[in-house]
Amino acid sequence: TYYSKGFDLARSSGRSWRAPQAAKTQFSEATVRYTSYLHSPASRTLGGEPSQDMTLLGAEFVFDSGGAFNTFVQANGVVSGFAEGYADWIMGLRSNDVLGLPFLFYEIGLGAGCGGGIDVGGGLLWSLGAGVELDLSERLKLRAGVQKRETFSGAFSVVSPSVDLSYSFRKLERTESNAQKMHFYTGVTRQFPNETYFKNRPEYSETPNLLETTVDVFVTDHLYLTGQASTAFTGDVGGYQLGLFGLGWHGMVHRDFSASFEVLVGAAGGAGVDTKGGLIAGARAEVDYWMSDDLALTAGLGYVQSVQPNGMAPLTANIGVKVPVWF
After folding, report:
1. d(C-alpha 260, C-alpha 82), whole Å
2. Measured between alpha carbons, how far is 181 from 91 in angstroms, rounded to an integer?
């Protein structure tokens, strides 16, 4: 079973900022989320113990099709408290107003959650929520809300108060120099463990490899917001995952080559990797070789570590492909 939605995004040249004909669906907001999961008495760990409350950090992208509802894609990961390594992903619809009041909204979503030793059954979960929005400036918006989230199977049921800070692109004038552009990247990232990478496993020597998906949203010709999700597929660290977001700079250094640099923060955990509660930070530099206007081969080097000391702090290397689109 799956749900899909066409976004009608236009393709464009990776080496030119000349926009094609405007797409129907437009990227409208990038959001940083801070939320708590307050478990109901029915929530349980895989061992049958009552689940405890936890704090999560997340990110969200919002797409506007000009109708009564916007589509959002959201990811959250534990950064402190109970269940280090838990993360979930939600795709849903959010109303633009309630009874004609533009500062009120309600939302519905469907997604998946896993990790942290929580009994999520098969992982599929639903979300219902409501809240208020406040415009702080022409571009910044503060959103406060509460959601009810529950899995269709397993023993996971939470109330989730949240505070979101959004950067809005709706009022940006669409010109050739305004860079309303996105890069979609997918590839493989290898982490090179340090001595405190694992919890109580000093003899472990395998090098974890992760599948990564990244979206870069440009706010100027060179600056972009980035959201990254990675999950392990080799290295005996099944269940290890990371979610990162941050700010990057990108520029052409040759006719066929471009370079970028990013600073990142997010959440990670699972498989005995010692993320010291889940909150992590890092940086990465990449080089793109544009094989055509619509496809680049990307390679990068970076570093990521737990914010709390004496935890995971691996060097990273990544390789993959990048595709540009306009929104």
Report:
1. 36
2. 22
Determine contact, residues 307/290, Cβ cutoff 8 Å: no
The H-or-E segment that residue 166 falls in is strand 157-168
The rounded percent of the chain whose pLDDT value lies above 90 is 35
pLDDT digits (tens, 9 = 90+) for 159-211: 999 999 988 876 544 444 444 678 999 999 999 988 888 887 666 657 889 99
Q: Is the model's pTM score more than 0.90?
A: no
Long-range contacts of 119-123 (CB under 8 A, 24+ apart): 119/43, 119/44, 119/45, 119/46, 119/154, 119/155, 119/156, 120/151, 120/154, 120/156, 121/151, 121/152, 121/153, 121/154, 121/155, 121/156, 122/151, 122/152, 122/153, 122/154, 123/151, 123/154
Residues 6+ apart with CB under 8 A from 137: none
Contact 302, 284 (CB under 8 A): yes
Please give the pLDDT value at position 121.
85
105, 92 Cβ separation under 8 angstroms: no
Identity of residue 130: A
